[in-house]
Amino acid sequence: MHNFEFQHPTAFILLALIICIYKCPLSIKKIVFPHTSLFRQHGGWINKEKLLYSLILTLLVTALASPVSYDSKDAQQRKGRDLVFALDTSGSMNESGYSSKESDASKFTILENLMKSFVQKRFDDNVGVVVFGSYAFSPVPITYDMHSLSYMLDFLEVGMAGSSTAIGDGLARSLDMLQKSHAKNRVIILVTDGYQNSGETKIKDAVIRAKKLHVKIYTIGLGKKNEYDKKLLEKIAKDTNGVSFSATNADELKDVYKELNTLEPSAIRSEHYLNKKVLFTYPLAFAILLLLYMLAKRRT
To answer: How do residues 119-133 score in pLDDT, each as one tens digit?
Structure first.
């Protein structure tokens, strides 16, 4: 489907300057003629010179608004991966002191903010979210709309799935979402700060299922190494050809997301995927031609 839009539509506010072309004289020259009857007054409601100025200004503002055309494709045609975040929302995620810069912010708040920055760079991917505590569910289905996903992240909170830690259920719900996926690459990013102490699904069974579905699992342990099941997370990642990370503070978690971007790069950028064509050169060139015409006319 072919589309057209302006990247900076607010630039059209500058069109209000057209009023000045008609209402604000550049200068007032006093010329005295003894016999005014010798001159004819050419009255007319259209001033060609001001009309040309208005047209030039309109073209320049249009160029400034940066018009583009592009071809969009529906979600089924996207060539990226399907990625699901499995997020721990147990009570311990509400602990503060994880960041030296934001000492009052909870681990989960810091995690949410980093996730928003991460998903905005996933131009070719479809992303979903699963939260788990005493049980697991999906508040955000797999979507290609990263703006809506970022908006929905604001509604997630600690304790919304209970206060315990059901890692197996979190993986199971994530696999349920990915099982219907037709993407070539399917990935789960599991984030937790605790030990499995709840849920109906055994982690071993979830890992076996992930291997059958060819789903890669990356694991991120938050906090000190004795605060979460480090060996378990390493085994989950290893068995599914993923990587396990540790993040004892917010800065290390930020580095983890940077590394994830290199391990699972978003190869198809928006310009390539949308086949975007920049069009600002056309109105700009036309405006320059009109200006040259007016300059040449004044000289003659």
So the answer is: 887 877 899 999 999
User: How many angstroms separate the CA atoms of 65 and 79, rounded?
Assistant: 30
Please count the residues of the chain. Answer: 300
Please tell me the number of Cα atoms within 13 Å of 146 on its side-chain side. Answer: 15
Q: Considering just the CA atoms, what is the radius of gyration of the chain in Å?
A: 30
Handedness of CA 168, 173, 179, 183 (dihedral sign): negative
Among left, alpha and beta (phi > 0; psi -120 to 50; other), residue 162 is left
CB 161 within 8 A of CB 134: yes
Q: Specify whether the CB–CB gap between 93 and 193 falls below 8 A.
A: yes
Cα–Cα distance for residue pair 88/136, rounded to 1 Å: 9
Distance of CA 71 to the CA centre of its chain: 19
Cα-Cα-Cα-Cα dihedral sign, residues 156, 160, 162, 166: negative
In whole angstroms, how far apart are CA 109 and each of 94, 103, 114, 225, 244?
A: 8, 11, 9, 21, 22
| Residue 62 burial (10 A CB sphere; 0-12, 13-18, 19+) | buried
Delimit the domains of the chain by residue range.
2-72+273-299, 80-267
- Which two tokens mark 206? 């979830």
126-184 per-position pLDDT tens digit:
999 999 999 999 999 998 888 889 999 999 999 999 999 999 999 999 999 999 888 88
Beta bridge partners of 29: none
Cα–Cα distance, 265 to 262 (Å, whole number): 5
CATH fold for domain 80-267? Rossmann fold (3.40.50)
Burial (0-12, 13-18, 19+ Cβ within 10 Å), 101: exposed
> Which tokens sit at 200?
């109906």
Residue 243 has pLDDT above 90, yes or no: yes
